[in-house]
Amino acid sequence: MSTETVWAKLQSLMGAAIDDINKAADSSILTALEKKYLGKKGEVQAYMQHMKELPPEERPKLGALVNDVRGKIESKIAEVSKNIENAKLVADLKNRRLDLSLPGRIPACGAEHPLQKTQREIEDIFLSMGFEIARGPQGEWDYFNFEALNFPEDHPARDMQDTLMLENGALLRTHTSPVQVRTMLSYAPPIRIIAPGTVYRRDDDVTHSPVFHQVEGLHIEKGLNLTHLRGILELFAQSLFGKNTKIRLRPSFFPFTEPSVEVDIACIFCGQKGCRLCKQTGWIEILGAGMVDPNVLKAGHIDPEIWSGWAFGVGIERVAMLLHGISDIRLFFESDLRFLRQFR
Ligand code: FA5
Description:
Number of helices: 11
Structural class: alpha+beta
Strand content: 15-25%
Mean pLDDT: 92
Radius of gyration: 41 Å
Largest sheet: 7 strands, mixed
Shape: elongated
Bound molecules: adenosine-5'-[phenylalaninyl-phosphate]
Order of helices and strands: HHHHHEEHEHEEHEEEHEHH
Distance between the termini: 83 Å
CATH class of the largest domain: Alpha Beta
CATH architecture of the largest domain: 2-Layer Sandwich
CATH topology of the largest domain: BirA Bifunctional Protein, domain 2
Number of domains: 2
Helix content: 40-55%
Oligomer: single chain
CATH superfamily of the largest domain: Bira Bifunctional Protein, Domain 2
């Protein structure tokens, strides 16, 4: 056979192969055709046997021809195979009667707990004023929770905080104030910290929980006085409750501050006209505060002749209840999704 004859035959073989492939209805037919034409013993390969009949200079041409035909058949098979796959997919989708207009499935997604959110908001306000975050243990020594804070042993002031005792002079801290002394003992003044955390008391009603959360604030510097405390707390109240929020300081008593104050905000519910939530007074108490008692500075190894300080302690639940108009503290701890979802 001459090269021309082989070429002509290969052309017609390719035509036949392409016709067959175009007609293939499924992938098993395609596989059979691939074997028939391109397999080791297939029809295209068979032409290589004519190689020895050709003069040596013609042989590379035959090789190239066979490869060319093989390549064209291969790409035709690939093309038809893809078409068959697509047609199958379309048929599948039709058979499944997939309704693309149905709403998708929304995956269950958690959200920040309202107390966590309120804590973070309080932290952000003080962090933006240059305060740092300090922490202390929840299981605390009597010394840090009471004695170093100027509550003498057996003093009636201890009754203000009904305490859950552990063993060997340890207890569950009743407030975050022990972090004041721990911080003073660890860092030299000036000090400017807030200490958020969980605290415990033997308390249980709609506004009091046995487990609750406070944020302590402590600022120690030279020459501080009550007006500095007032300025910072006013900024704090305005950042949380709105920029026109007014505050007032009322005399109070804590063993670890002198003077001590309770801080009220003008009622955010009635605009001071008087309502159930402010008990018709126009004011709502939000926190306790005062100038750090010299005895507490001494317990923290800080000289009260040189340094002075102010401190405050705010209940996170109380703030969250005010911000969201919640009247029962227990809602925060019941993990009822109908309640929690409202804070997403
Ligand atoms: C104290 O705990 C002081 N350590 C605060 C303080 C710090 C004063 C620094 C001065 C200087 P008090 O017992 O008032 O104070 O508690 C502070 C806040 O914690 C209260 O205003 C209230 O919002 C919250 N609180 C107290 N007991 C409970 C409770 N059982 N459940 C929820 N919140 C509570």
